[in-house]
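debug: dumping io for the single-chain case to check the tokenizer round-trip. Nothing else runs in this session.
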Amino acid sequence: MRKRLLAILTVAIVLAPPGAGRARAFARTGETESAFSIGATRSRADAPVEYPVIVVAIDGVRPREIFDGEDPTFVKRRPLRSAKELTPNIHALGVEGHLLGKDERVTASGPNYVSLPGYTEMFSGARAVHCTTNECGRTQVPTIVDAMADHGQRAAVVTSWERICLAAAMDESKLDATCGRNHGTLDSEGDGTLDSLVDAAKTMGPGPGHDDYRPDAATAEIALRVLETKHPDFLFVGLGDTDEHAHQGNYDGYVSALTQADSFVGELRGRLGWLGERGQKTTIIVVTDHGRAANFRDHGGATPESRFGFMLVSGPLVARGTGPGTDVSLGDVGRGAGKLLGLPAESNAFNRWISARL
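debug: decoded output
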């Protein structure tokens, strides 16, 4: 997250002509920058969402710890923990669904493997051509959140890193979110407990992050309350303590944060069990925005190995006993979620796989 690079990128905004159906309010520079379109005014909400989606993004996690456990290069005075010991809940869900990142590679499209382009790719469902650093402003293209608002669907975004709000929606007025301690506007819908959790987090320090960062423990608690009380059709949760510790060269802190993030995934799984049929029909996607360099501390365009990550997909419609049969990108997060939510979606191997039992 902390890697700051400067870049200037000029894009042209192309709008579909009047009467051409749903307006294509996205930029083009030789390739589509968004899988989603917006612009048509709806007089009524679409049919209720039957298959909700939860995305948990754990920042800056290497495939190494997910598939092979702790790295002996950084652990010297205690027994190494296996992958299943580090992330038992992710692996349990992997049995029910599929864990990608070893046989089928998961990659950030880059070319600069830092956080804001990665999150922009997830939300837009396409390579973040207009955003190549962590200094990008608000996204210039429609996202899954914008498209859901056009279809009368409910999305909520809860993240530790404040800048994810910039990637989540082109139209800030459509964003129901709390990012970092003070960014975004989350509608508590009158729930005093949720208001209290958000307010209490504002008084915390940013550690292990900086600026307006909110520690993962507070973010996780807020996200669970949002799930229970708001019942969003799409919930995006961004956890970042892993990346913050890694940038400090703190391997023990990194794996501890990864284990805590995995515990949150287990809590989510348990809370979904309380939601009856809606919980049973919910798909969980766990993913990382980028991997890490060989030196563990860094990531970015200068270290191409940091483009590799992992992705877990578990849900009622996912094809059983097999993966999509191809490498996937961060854009598949948005495209796949959009397919499950009933948004217009292209037909590709990942979308067919994630909705195979539809």
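debug: round-trip ok. The chain has one domain: 12-35+47-354.
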